[in-house]
Write a structure and sequence with these properties.
Blueprint (H helix, E strand, L loop, with lengths): L1 H51 L7 H23 L4 H14 L1 H6 L1 H20 L2 H7 L2 H14 L5 H23 L3 H5 L5 H26 L6 H31 L7 H20 L5 H23 L5 H18 L5 H5 L5 H26 L3
Helix pairs in contact: 1-12, 1-13, 2-11, 2-12, 5-10, 5-11, 6-13, 7-10, 8-14, 10-16, 13-14
Length: about 375
Amino acid sequence: MAAGSHSQAAAEEEKTTSGSQSEVHRRLKYISLAVLVVQNASLILSIRYVRTLPGDRFFTTSAVVMAEVLKVVTCLFIILLQRKFHVKDTVYFLFDSIVFQYKDTVKLAVPSLIYTLQNNLQYVAISNLPAATFQVTYQLKILTTALFSVMMLRKTLSRVQWVSLLLLFAGVAVVQLEQEGKKEASVSEDSHQNYSVGLVAVVISCLSSGFAGVYFEKILKGSSASVWMRNVQLGIFGTALGALGLWWNDGAAVAERGFLFGYTGTVWCVIFNQAFGGLLVAVVVKYADNILKGFATSFSIIVSTVMSVYLFGFQVDLLFTVGAGLVIGAVYMYSLPKATVASSSSLSSSSSSSASLASPRMDGGAEMEAFLPKSVLVK
């Protein structure tokens, strides 16, 4: 009797604990959704806002460098915190990870170069395109990432995903047709803005984002380094390459006016958002499944469009609505989980052969999901 009551109490306690953990996980999913939406929409809107304000404009190349420096400092602090503020131990750990394991560090030079280029191109694109148009067009990175994944990683896409990519391309094309026929008033009136330059910048940014994300995943498969250490390594290269780009593009002007020329409180908010937003997303993204991330991206497009109407006088017409709707639907479709074809085919095949074939695919998918969020950090 005593043993039975004890086991029943243990079962009830386990059920209560499981229920509370499920409730916490559900809340974390909603929190992660809010964080993803706010970060996606606020960064684009804030960059667009500061780049269209009258007066002295800050150097975007300096903002990219500053964001990289802040990111490295933050990650170093987190690593120090993880090692309980043992400075000597942390220094040895960093020296070993960065210098002694130099081959792993050098591997990150290529994605760091591409991410630095991408960050600069995003400023160029958002400075020349309406925020809503940029947000919709920038979803082409899903198409480029998928294509590079197929070519470089031999990844297979479901029919639904291929259809969603076609819808995505069609939606972006419709939006571009709408913008070509009726551009935003500020773009046509302001001599500092050029729609064609912005469009080229966002397309190159999408290509670089897709390639860098897949390349990053490919070279880091099997790596045991933490995401914070990877960001330190990326940030070191990013800071150096960003400084080189600053010298090449704005060197004389920075020498004359100063590195922090044009910086205001709003500009600092943009830089902090760019530096810490990606790190924050990395923390919460593990609580968000693919469907939630797709929904967050779709909702951020809606938020950007609505806010653009109020902040920048953006005009939404039928063509833009249709194009944006296609993109939103495509993003959601692409994020849906694949149909388990293996489970249905296993009815007509032996269980041993199906298990041997299914397990590598599952492992590869788990690895991919583990590494994909890391590319978010350096956007």
